[in-house]
Amino acid sequence: RAKELGGHRVEVFAAHMHADVMRRLEMAADLQRALMENQFALEYQPVVDLATSRVTAVEALVRWWRGSAFVPPEDFLGVAEDTGLIVPLSEWILTEACREVAAWRASSWDIGLNVNLSPRQITSPRFVDTIAAALKESGLPPSALTLEVTEDLLVEDADERIERLSALRALGVRLAIDDFGTGYASLAYLRQLPVDMIKIDPSFVSGLGSDETLALLTRTIVRLGHDLGLVVVAEGIERPEQLEQLREMGCTRGQGYLVARPMAPRRVDTLMPPKLSGTLR
Ligand code: C2E
Ligand code: MG
Ligand code: MG
Ligand code: MG
């Protein structure tokens, strides 16, 4: 009897698994086609100086319309990772973003570019060369590029990845820890990785104005980051009271829907500060 029940449970489980495998296979095929047919796009979300509201950088975020349905990156990046498609996809993202931001900088707009890295991408033997090539072809100075990595990156193959990221940093590229504070060993990573920036996870920022503990933790992270000489960016700012508290804590940079949503490239143009015309007197 117990065996029967158990056996039944295995079958149900297997059916679910089967559906999931099919879904992922279909998605993998669609991703492959999307890559060949150039169906991906980039949006850019501004990172601003919280004191002056000046845009200091833009973060490139990949967008995929699967037919008429928008698929959030978190729903397809896992499949792209598992199938290895993340490598060519990431190469396209990097090349496209460097080219676009280099063009904005050519109109004497001093902005940086942040690009997210996937864990698998870093293990690709082409990784360092791809980034060096994207910089060279676009003319973007290495110091204008910040690569965002998450803490789970160092769970496996840590030595190899640290070595590659260090090689890039030696070229002048900057590194950021994304979603800071959510990994199980946030502080340890600061010793292992040569980072320039931490991005405080939205789960801290969301509690500002209502949760004393989260406010205290946020304040502590801001201070820690600054004491280590890092740029600290607060992510996910949605409400004015969060912005107020972050300013009061001395957090200098921020990102979030309140400040600016991710936007299409042609809308980024409109954020460009007006050029000084004629001679200054
Ligand atoms: P992330 O790098 O932490 O990016 C921030 C995410 O938060 C973005 O979601 C952004 O649209 C969203 N966001 C920004 N401000 C707010 C806010 O005020 N409130 C809320 N609720 N959300 C906000 P998105 O574009 O869906 O990306 C999700 C994640 O997918 C990213 O998290 C990143 O880990 C990954 N991702 C996105 N684009 C790329 C890419 O080009 N390459 C790689 N490897 N990963 C990417
Ligand atoms: Mg990011
Ligand atoms: Mg983040
Ligand atoms: Mg994230």
From TrEMBL:
Coiled coil: none
Domain EAL: 24-276
Name the record gives this protein: EAL domain-containing protein
Originating organism: Bailinhaonella thermotolerans
Portion of the parent chain present: 598 to 878 of 878
